[in-house]
Amino acid sequence: MESRSLVNFSGHQYLRQRLVLSILTGKHVRIDKIRSEDKDPGLRDYEVSLLRLLEKVTNGSVIEISVTGTAVLLKPGVVSGGPVTHDCPLSRSIGYFLEPLVMIAPFSKKPFQLTLRGITTDDNDLSVDLIRTVTLPHLQLFGISDGLELRIKRRGAPPEGGGEVQFLCPIVKEVKTVNFVDPGKIKRIRGIAHSVRVNPQFSNRMIDASRSVLNRFIPDIYLYSDVYKGDESGKSPGYALSLLAESTTSAIHCSEAASSPGEAPEDIALLATRALLSEIRHGGCVDRKHQSLVLLMMVLGSEDIGQCRMGEPSVRTVQFLRDIKIFFGTVFNITPVDSSNTELLYSCLGTGYVNVNRSLA
Amino acid sequence: MEDEGDRLLDLLQAHGQQFLNSFDLNQHPRKKQKLEESQKELENEDFEEWGGFSNAAVSTHPSEENDDDTPDEYDDGFTASSSTKIPDVVVFSDSRQKPSEQFSKAQKKAFMATKVTSIMEVDRAPHRDEDDTQNDEDISNAQNDALLHRLVHTKLLSGSLNPALDLTHAQRDKALSGRVLEIAGKAKLGKGEVDIRAAERNKASKRVREGLLRKKDEREKQQLEEAKNLGNYHPTLKKLFDTSSRSSGRQRRVRGLGMGVGKFSGGTLKLSKEEINSVTG
Fold it and tell me: Taking every annotated instance into account, which residue ranges of this chain make up the domain RNA 3'-terminal phosphate cyclase (chain A) (predicted)?
């Protein structure tokens, strides 16, 4: 008899967030009908790799995958952390694997020393630059700061990859309650333009094109041209631009664009810049890509009302809120800030989650 | 949403009016009046569909209000006169500002750091305190060295006055004269006595002089050997054991008639700022 509850889901979407919630709550989760009607049914290689990675990072978790791969059962163990190395497949970038780990890393037994190899910058997921400069600072809001590092040892562009990053995360006992209701005004814009195995002028061209749009808004813009040479530049050529805008209350909005064959760097830069401007227009204290992370941390906070002001939830966020209700039983109170704005105020009662795994030695 | 629609309609209306006004319309003054009238009305009302140029349904009734855009019976109102419409000029300034100097090296390093805490502390204004203190330290070290050198040779080892040295009167005399020379600046620090003794040596006859020099060389060679044997010698200390005395290229002899101020060459008298100031006071 199952003393723990079993949660059932179907479909391959939102797989990562469901696995993360399962690990954090300890509830078994069963996901079936994964691409059952597809030409290639079942789990993809990167999803299997993610499950392997979660197995490495936790202790005592049991993962059962059906014969056809269309169903998976996860009985989560304890997040142990420590030094872990994983080679990510070349079908998804490292960001795909790092995002769920950022959510569980603060609650592990030992501090994470995770080395991931694979593609560092991609169109589909957050690049490592944005994770370092945007995602990890969001953790600082919740009191996780000392010893939080992301070292980019090598860069790797698709399709061949060859990148390597090292993620170090401290462990915390519990997460602070956040009360982030003032988005402030954008005071500066920073960016990282990098190019590997192509003409180094490409970064400069991207920076010029981006500046041509952004200069008329605020004076404090600095776009950094990141140079990696030789071995550290990976196996394939590529270039990308990541932008972030910081406000007076340290709310961060970000955007990025990566190269694809045949596109000019100026086009990439304009794409990223316009995406940043539309992200800023969306408003709020947290941008759309990081809504899930912030909402999760609010739920895990101490037993107090936490508040955060954000724009409208993306589709992923909406599903995440539903899943939180299933796993934690917490419901968010979402009210509009005022009638003229599209921004919403999200508030919830934290569950008082305490990291019981941490080794007290 | 309706406000939005109305606003857009007004914009369209205004644009249309502007377009029409760009044409110089030859008109009967009465029609012109009506034109103005109807224009005003049209500005106030919602935009009505314009029936086209061929709509010659021109009524001369001044009271008729729901008129279309005034069609002219005789011509379509289009004349080749110069358009009174001024083209809209939109300036997109591509002003390139130079990268903000506030983004100092320290901030750059902090932004690209691997530690997340330093990324968020970029706010600190670039302080140059470290550079300044470094400079101050360097300066004070050099100053201290010079001071020490001066003290050692002037106060700390007063060769003539120390009773423990058991100097004879002659030796004391020479030491004192040497110190006086040093103070006067005629001799280098520490070499005052050497100069005095060299001067005395020069007073002697040739044989005595040469004998003394030979003895001096021998003595110094022996000292060098002893130092090497004892392990006190290092190639960097060569100058200490150097026997040959060379005058450090006596400071250049002043040439020409030093007529007080400035330097005269090539037909011109060249004056420096200090010289001018010294004259003008």
Answer: 8-334
